[in-house]
Amino acid sequence: MADNANTATANIGVVGLAVMGSNLARNLASREGNTVAVFNRSPERTRTLTTEHPEANFVASETIEDFVNSLSKPRTAIIMVQAGAGTDAVIDQLTNLFEPGDIIVDGGNALFTDTIRREKAVSATGIHFVGAGISGGEEGALKGPSIMPGGSAESYKTLGPILASIAAVAEGEPCVTHVGTDGAGHFVKMIHNGIEYADMQLIAEAYDLLRRNAGLTPAEIADVFAEWNKGELESYLIEITAEVLRQVDAKTGKPLVDVILDQAGSKGTGVWTVQNALALGVPVSGIAEAVFARSLSSHPEQRAAAAGMPGPASPVAVTDREAFIEDVRRALYASKIIAYSQGFDAIRAGAEEFNWTIDLGAVSRIWRGGCIIRAQFLNRIADAYAESPNLSALLTAPYFAEAITSSQEAWRRVVVSATVTGIPAPAFSSSLAYYDGLRAERLPAALVQGQRDFFGAHTYGRVDLPGVFHTLWSGDRTEIEMN
Ligand SMILES: NC(=O)c1ccc[n+]([C@@H]2O[C@H](COP(=O)([O-])OP(=O)(O)OC[C@H]3O[C@@H](n4cnc5c(N)ncnc54)[C@H](OP(=O)(O)O)[C@@H]3O)[C@@H](O)[C@H]2O)c1
């Protein structure tokens, strides 16, 4: 390894060679024109990678100094280490050795506010810092992920072609775009993950309804999903759902889904999405219900305590299976439109709050390949923003409005069916409530505002007059105009 050190031959480097880093390094090395330097805190990982993949011709180093010296200028290094303290430690090491104009990329799952902080500190030294969201898991890292870089436009000139060389390709376009400055890339990646939570929860609710209401077996539901995957719901998540449902457990001969413990875990990006959407005042109810559904599933003690509590006295069985399956498909599509509409709304609000210029159509295009939520549907979102870049709510774009209009009766029947049979469908029903809330001519918010004025003199506006008003609730209850 020392042979290669100090020769400055690599145009790109990767620090952190666990599953994501080593796959990304191999992906980079497989692309024409790239020579890839690699470094990992524990040298064993580096040795394993170089031994197992001689074809990659990695320039491997066992010290961070040799690694830095092996990079040609401007030096560009992608950090793929554990998010948090590990990332800060590596940034410190690189910042001490890099020179102005060099580029540090954090490809881990950092919280965007950490990225904003890091970008500020690193760019003060003249070194570029780019937080890049990378989606697609280990397979995506190896074969082509969807990449969401932030950072300066200047650093993207060097970085863009390198990232484009390894990104997934969808309809001839690489799934990477300069999302915006500083933390914009990690913010968009966070929302991507939030949407992923909602999409998965909606699919899980569809499965539960088909299984428990319509009495389909997991294998039959796999066939239904495989069929759906040929139409407007075509997506990676629908495709893998069919695969999971078809899988039979070798130990018991049962469907695998029946032997998997029904407690869903998470790594926290869904929680981040909801926390930030709350702070931005954007209702991402589909994502929030998905996060809560995972939390509920992971409280076995509460579930055991509530297990004997009654459900509906006489659940109504599904009589027309085919019609019910079609209703569920439509409810799933309508709810999915809501989830994406809410997610894009959160990106728009985040861009406003943090002064980013984010092209929402470009974001939808880079999600068409490589990432977990890749789907045909994203083309429709790209079309909607191409037609109307300042669309206030995605669901009102003509294509989506028409899809919801034609699905809403089915959607309502499915939510009713879930309610009367006692099957929880929180994402389906909250999406429908969001839709009904948004389209309502009058909302009971008027009453809430009246209550607020009663106990806290929080004032209200009137539908018929300009100005701000307060009723003297504890006096003679006349109304006064506030200045
Ligand atoms: N797994 C996924 O599907 C996925 C998808 C997208 C993004 N990501 C993100 O990609 C990053 C890498 O993920 P991963 O699953 O490959 O690895 P990981 O398990 O998150 O992290 C392990 C790597 O971090 C290094 N590391 C930890 N603390 C360090 C420190 N203080 N100084 C230097 N190196 C340190 C480890 O080095 P040692 O070998 O020396 O311990 C090892 O290379 C993470 O930020 C993750 O969130 C993961």
Describe this entry's structure for a reader.
- Helix 1 packs parallel to helix 6 (137-143), helix 13 packs antiparallel against helix 19 (426-439) and helix 16 (360-366) runs antiparallel to helix 17.
- Strand 10 (468-471) and strand 11 (479-482) form a beta hairpin.
- The chain starts with 11 loop residues before the first strand and ends with a strand.
- It is an alpha/beta fold.
- It has helices at 19-29, 43-52, 64-69, 85-97, 112-123, 137-143, 153-166, 184-212, 218-228, 236-246, 256-259, 269-280, 285-297, 300-306, 321-354, 360-366, 377-387, 398-421, 426-439, 445-456; strands at 12-15, 36-39, 59-60, 76-79, 103-106, 128-135, 146-149, 169-170, 173-174, 468-471, 479-482.
- The strands form 3 sheets. It has a 7-stranded mixed β-sheet with strand order 3-2-1-4-5-6-7, sandwiched between helices.
- Mean pLDDT is 96; it is low at 1-5.
- The protein folds into 3 domains: 12-178, 3-Layer(aba) Sandwich (Rossmann fold); 189-439, N-(1-d-carboxylethyl)-l-norvaline Dehydrogenase, domain 2; 444-482, Single alpha-helices involved in coiled-coils or other helix-helix interfaces (Up-down Bundle), CATH 1.20.5.
- The structure holds NADP nicotinamide-adenine-dinucleotide phosphate.
- Pathway: Carbohydrate degradation; pentose phosphate pathway; D-ribulose 5-phosphate from D-glucose 6-phosphate (oxidative stage): step 3/3.
- Its EC number is 1.1.1.44.
- This is 6-phosphogluconate dehydrogenase, decarboxylating.
- One of its GO terms (molecular function) is NADP binding.
- Catalyzes the oxidative decarboxylation of 6-phosphogluconate to ribulose 5-phosphate and CO(2), with concomitant reduction of NADP to NADPH.
